[in-house]
Amino acid sequence: MTACPPAASPGILLVDDEPDWLASMTLLLEVSAGLDNVRSCQDSRQVMGLLDAGGIGLVLLDLTMPHLSGTELLAAIAERHPDVVCIVLSGMNQLTTAVSCMKLGAYDYYVKTDDEARIVGGILRAVHMLELREENRVVASRVVSGQLRHPEAFAAICTQSPAMRAVFAYVEAVAQSPRPLLVSGESGVGKESLVRAAHDLSGRGGPLVACNVAGLDDGVFADTLFGHVRGAFTGADAPRRGLVEEAAGGTLFLDEIGDLSIASQVKLLRLLQEGEYYPLGSDRPRKLCARVIAATHADLAAREREGAFRRDLYFRLRTHHVAVPPLRERPEDIAVLLDHFLAEAATAMGKRKPTPPPELAALLATYAFPGNVRELAAMVYDAVSLHTGRMLSMERFKRHIGAPDAAPDASADDNPFTGLAALPSFAQAEKLLLCEAMARSGGRQTLAARLLGVTQSALSKRLKALRQEGD
Q1: DSSP of 57-116, one letter per residue?
Q2: Smallest Cα–Cα separation from 149: which of 201, 102, 100?
Q3: How far apart are CA 133 and CA 141, in angstroms?
Q4: What are the Cα distances from residue 467, in Å, to 153, 198, 414, 439?
Q5: Between vectors from CA 29 to CA 27 and to CA 35, what angle results, nearest 5°?
Q6: How far is Cα 419 from Cα 436, in angstroms, rounded to an integer?
Q7: Residue 151: exposed, middle, or buried by beta-carbon count in 10 A (0-12, 13-18, 19+)?
Q8: What is 115-179 written as a DSSP string?
Q9: Which of 52, 112, 213, 317 is surrounded by the most beta carbons within 10 Å?
Q10: Per-residue confidence (pLDDT) for residue 362, from 0 to 100
């Protein structure tokens, strides 16, 4: 069984005056846990110098040593290197000693005669805690600064939205983490593009392997992910590699994770918790060597409360979590997406890119877009397929969003005041226009200004004057 070391694990220092124990523990951590960044030290007087040099995040410490004892080192490390985690591995099985070490700042305490699996499990928990702590620090600094080191990874996503820029910063910050990433958002918001960006930024040499798990029954799910050996079931005449093995060294993308059955959730939880799996028909475990990213349009928190999704799996998946905002919450993206899809559709259909009417983006911004970016793309492709002139017609867009036929059009000469017995005053007409524009825009001044063809500052002045008249 080949172990897969976690990415970017902190350096580990073994401190003991027994060379045989140092050698056996180093081998155990490498074989059982895949930790190959382990250093050893027989002289306790050298420990502080090694820590001062940097690169050590975890110290495994014996208590009974010549020169400096383990308790003395614990106190010194806590004072000079409070970020370094210490685990005591002692030959003394005494409760008072363990309590004393914990008071001095030890993260955990084990007796050397304890079960090896228990010791390795405790060390891995400490390593994972250190990795999460570092990831949280990086995430905080990246999100606060808002700066992207690799904006080219998100080039396929057209946006001018600050909310989407914050999403990019978060994804970039956690891209190299070995922990699961959960991407949530309504259908059509572009979750797959973010998953692709996260994989490209991960630095992993393996492939991105995707699987839509919606509708897979438990047997198909297990065979698809874990594969099978020859003779595992009737018809299994040859072994089959599962997607987990196909994604080794890369990323395993599980789409629509919210629709996974409870029985399959149990299997996925074991994969994430233990980092290993069994191909169908095999009694030899294999290591998970891929980073898992899951996506869903469902509200997993609500499904967990309803009992349709396991709580332990939910929290395991959302170690890192990003929620992609729907298109209706980022109207500033509509114009840029419209231009992008017009060019894309025209190229696909062998036509010249049509010119959209100036008011088209403002009209679309009044629509809720339940299908999000995917729906907008479909609308544009439909309109371009029927386009013959230079200026793009708004008719197909109006029909799609249910806009009234009498809505103002750039080419229309209809006078809304024709047929009125009495004309409104300029002040009355302005008030009606302002109220209608604010109603259509949902109270957003930027959008209302676009609808009226004025600047936002001019609209703001008029609204302020209107409020003062009301007072």
Answers
A1: EEEEE-S--SSS-HHHHHHHHHHH-TTSEEEEEES---HHHHHHHHHTT-SEEEETTS-H
A2: 201
A3: 13
A4: 47, 48, 31, 16
A5: 115
A6: 21
A7: exposed
A8: -HHHHHHHHHHHHHHHHHHHHHHHHHHHHHH---S-GGGGTTS----HHHHHHHHHHHHHTT-SS
A9: 317
A10: 87
Report the relative pairing of strands 227-228 and 276-277 from DSSP bridges.
Answer: unpaired
Q: For 466, what's the count of Cα atoms within 13 Å in the CB-facing half-sphere?
A: 17
Cβ contacts of residue 452 below 8 Å, gap of 6+?
433, 434, 437, 459
Signed CA dihedral, 337, 343, 347, 351: sign only: positive
Q: What DSSP string runs through 213-262?
A: -TT--HHHHHHHHHEE-TTSSTT--S-EE-HHHHTTTSEEEEESGGG--H
List of domains in the chain = 11-135 (3.40.50.2300), 169-325 (3.40.50.300), 329-401 (1.10.8.60), 426-470 (1.10.10)
Strand partners, 323: 184
**Helix, strand, or coil (residue 211):** strand
| pLDDT beneath 70: ranges in the chain | 1-9, 140-146, 403-415, 418-421, 470-471
pTM for this model (two decimals): 0.67
Phi, psi of 250 (to 5 degrees): -130, -135
The residue assigned the tokens 């309590």 is: 99
Residue owning tokens 């793309």 = 377
The token pair that represents 128 in the structure block: 């994972």
Q: What is the pLDDT of residues 323-359, one digit of tens each?
A: 999 999 999 999 999 999 999 999 999 999 999 988 8
Record the tokens describing residue 305, joined without a space: 């409360």
Among the listed residues 416, 357, 433, 427, the one whose alpha carbon sits nearest the alpha carbon of residue 389? 357
Containing H/E element for 287? strand 286-287
Tokens of 76: 């010194």
Tell me, what's the pLDDT at 450? 75
Alpha-carbon distance of 301 to 258, in angstroms, equals 10
Which residues on adjacent β-strands are paired with residue 320?
181
Pairing of strands 38-41, 11-15: parallel
Residue 369 is given by DSSP the state: -
- Residue 147 gets the label, from left (phi > 0), alpha (psi -120 to 50) or beta, of beta
